Amino acid sequence: MAATAVNYQCPNCTAPLSFQPGHDKVTCEYCGEEFEVGAIEEMFRQREAMAAQAADARDAKWDTAAAGGDWDQADIDALKAFTCSSCGAEIVSDGNTMATECCYCGNPTMLPQRFEGMLKPDFVIPFKKTKEEAVAALKKFYEGRRLLPSAFTANNRVESIQAMYVPFWLFDTKTDAYATFRAEKVRVIETNNETITETKVYECLRSGSMAFERIPVDGSEKMDDTYMESIEPFDYREMVPFSTAYLTGYLADKYDVDAEQSAPRADKRVERSAVEVLEGTVTGYDHCTCKESSVAKEHGQVSYAMVPVWILTTKYEGKPYTFMMNGQTGKVVGSLPYDKGKAMMYALVTAVIICPIAYFIAKILLT
Amino acid sequence: MHRKEKLVALCLTLMLILAYAVALAAPKATTGSQGAAATGAPVIALGASVTDEAGLLSEGEKNSLTAAIQKVEKAHGVRIGIYTTKVLPQGYSPEKLANKLVDDYYSDAANGGMVLILAMKERDWHLSTNNPMRQRITDDAGFPYLRDSFLSQLSDGKYAGAFTTLVQKSDEMLTYYEKEGKPYDPASEFNILAAVAAVIIAALGGFMVRASMIASMSNVQAATEADTYLKRDSVNIKRSHDTYLFTNVTRTAKSKKSSDSSSGDGGGGGSHGGGGGKF
Ligand SMILES: [Zn+2]
Ligand SMILES: [Zn+2]
Fold first, then answer.
1. What is the C-alpha end-to-end distance of chain A, expressed in Å?
2. Residue of chain B whose Cα is closest to the Cα of A271
3. If you measure from the C-alpha of residue B142 to the centroid of ligand 1, how many angstroms do you get, rounded to a whole number?
4. Residue A88 Rama label (left phi>0; alpha psi -120 to 50; beta)
5. Per CATH, domain B33-187 is 3.10.310.50
6. Could you tell me if the ipTM is greater than 0.90?
7. pTM for this model (two decimals)
8. Where are the domains of chain A?
9. Which one of A46, A212, A348 has the shortest CB-CB distance to B230?
10. Buried b vs exposed e over A289-306: b needs ≥16 C-beta within 10 Å?
11. What is the pLDDT of residues B108-166, one digit of tens each?
12. Can you give the residue ranges of every domain in chain B?
């Protein structure tokens, strides 16, 4: 019914395309490109079908309410909370472990607080990496950094590295994705006096469904999201239902970004990956670019988990620099300050080395 | 005995020159006509510094040019000849004539000789250098530099200026050779433009090294996709449709190597150096 009302557009320049009856081919009045009428009709039929399907699939909300559970009274009594007097970070520990310094800003004053307002995690990935391993990884991270200020490593703080469980929201989702791609086959022919480049242009429609499991989004505001994403992935096969016993000897960060707020970060990653999966099925071409895409999430389940992280923050010239190690896999991430004088020296040395070589080459080219 | 040998040698030389003159004049005689200048071409005043048969120079210019050439000849132990003609003699290319003049009249100095000829009708010029001179003014580096110094004056009709420049530049290049022990090469001169380019490139390089070293101080990177969390077996492609749209064809012509017409034939092996062309 709606098919009669379809307006054809030129696939090349999107100008209106008019059909002359009785012809197999149609030429765009605007860009002059010629097309097979049959192919154009088929393409628009496919586009339409896909658009209809895409309209049916509506984004379902993440099921955030189901994430997390309630604590037993015994747990509440045993757990202690600490607040950083400098940056306001809230850290939780079992009654016997003291938070000695703030792992986000390096401030040594942690004020004890009443433990409250925190969901009980659904899962936990236990620590596998020991403090010795973390210290060794940190020392290795410092090694060979030519720009590292000597003052930064001089007050040997490596022993202050802390083990902490970081709260994570894990998003499960099923998606329906639709995308159109512009793909090209390029053939280059070399003759004696010409280079002929022949580009065959195709439009490729793809749709498909796929599921993603447990995309992690860090639930702590103090914890830099990009840091956490840098130490991904965690091996979920070792994830177990949470029990307070796992906290013994460790600190835990209290979540302060709820699942609702965290979801967009997961959405973005899902959308990108879904289109990439579709793009991966466009094969046999030399180039492929996505022209249009839509990704509908069918339904999402959310759970709340604690993941293990070794963390050390050192302040240098008023700015915090954090080193982090994945407590399960040992993957390391960090940022370090640099010595401005040393950086300038290396720049100068390089310039001094390059200058005569560049002069030599420039002179040959210019004379 | 001693006297007799001398006499024979003199006779032989005379005969040779005569035979030469006849050989050169012969083709002219058969075709008839041509001016007196052409006929006189091969028998120029033996090894004069300036032979201005085309009449391009005033008497004063000729005298001062001659003086300048002789000064340079004395200073460096070389021979320099400038020869202008209205028209080239029959059967002679500018190169052939210049080479011949160098060999016959300007090769009697230890450090080499050179001859510049100008043929006004053909607007041809050629500078020929013999082997010792080629060591001092090389075909690859010295000659192009020398050529570029006087060619534009030649084209503008400033003949006295062009010849004077040639003599001056030759003097400089010969002095350079004696001082440095190697032939002058403009490429070894300080080049301001290249220096500026080098400083900019070096500064850029230094800046890039600094930037990359600073960047290496952090390996923090945001994740943009969720590939790791994709359930591979859940992927179900429902629709897959490729439509051929059109073909674009672009043609680019390959650039052909063009030869430099003004430099003519210079360099290479052989017994003569230099080069020539039109002016
Ligand atoms: Zn068009
Ligand atoms: Zn703090």
1. 74
2. B225
3. 60
4. left
5. yes
6. no
7. 0.63
8. 1-56, 62-172+211-266+302-336, 340-367
9. A212
10. ebeebbbbbeebbbbbbb
11. 888 899 999 999 988 999 999 998 898 888 888 889 889 988 998 988 989 999 999 99
12. 33-187
